[in-house]
Amino acid sequence: MKQRDLSPATLWHSLLKISFLILLIIAANFASDWIADVLKIELRPSNEDFVHRTVLASAILYAFLIAIPFVPGVEIGLTLIGMFGPDIILLVYLSTFTGLMTAFIIGRCISMVALVRFLKSFHLLKASRLLESIEPLKMDDRLAFLVASTPSRLIPFLLRHRYVALAILVNLPGNILIGGGGGISLIAGTSRLFSYAGFLTTIVFAISPVPLAVLLFGTEFLAR
Which residues, at least 6 apart from 95, have a Cβ–Cβ distance to it below 8 Å? Predict the structure, then answer.
């Protein structure tokens, strides 16, 4: 079937949506950089209360920012660790976990029908048709369908070992290019291929290496 041409009005509408999403991501990135700069303050007896309040507020904002796709909120966590060392590891760890879990839950709350409608609004018809095909299927049936319908050998392998792949992607340097921790978690939730318990367990271990390394080797580990 021949695909109909898009009208100029439809193209402009799609471009406006894409531009809005890009501006939102850019604004969140600026916010992340600004918070990281604010945290570079010297701790003195005269400003100790202010610093503690700033750290707590930054940890909350860090959890929010790291949940947003394509935002390198992890820089805030590393700045906190670099300033306060092992004493703040638990707070940063909990903030990271909260942010990624929040993104996953949001993904699970997005209905497949809404996602299909969203993809169609950007004229991503192939992706929307795929989602329409798997929407009525249960998790196991959905996984089997995706494995069977993918010609590449790599994708079925990753789907079968999706929890291991998730842990690797979350820790992969430069994962900001594929959405960062927040984007990866959001997609994992939206896909319905990860259970709540499975995702939670995977993330608990996946975000542990850096905190454990700092506890064992100190903040000098981050400078290497």
Answer: 59, 60, 62, 63, 66, 77
